[in-house]
């Protein structure tokens, strides 16, 4: 918690029933910050590989104009891909 400028002293107990509500919230805050730190570290570690893979897609010139780095992370992008896949499968079935 100190990394996140939380400096209030507290003492955890193995039995949460022996803790006051503030200490329980502090413990929960620590839990949330632990996950934040983990995910932030993962992002920083994986970002160079992600950027390289994205640049390879750009260089292959296979992205459509609306398929930006921001768009492909959205639910709309996933739904668009699924819709296109469904339409392609229906076209194949009609052709058979």
Summarize the entry for a quick read:
The chain is an all-alpha fold.
Question: What are the SSEs and their pairings?
Answer:
Layout: H1 21-60, H2 75-95
How would you characterize this protein structure?
The chain is mainly α and 96 residues long. The chain contains 2 helices and no strands.
Q: Please, what is the average pLDDT? A: 94
Q: Rg, please?
A: 23 Å
State the helix count: 2
Helix content: 55-70%
Judging from the principal axes of the Cα atoms, what is the shape? elongated
Please mark out the parts with pLDDT under 50 across 5 or more consecutive residues, or reply none.
none
User: What is the subunit arrangement here?
Assistant: single chain
Beginning-to-end CA distance, first to last residue: 62 Å
Number of domains: 2
Report strand %.
under 5%
The biggest sheet, with number of strands, parallel, antiparallel or mixed sense and barrel status, is: none
Q: SS-based structural class?
A: mainly alpha
Compressed to H and E, one letter per element, the order equals HH
Query: Count the strands?
Result: 0
Main attributes of the structure:
elongated, 2 domains, mainly alpha, 96 residues
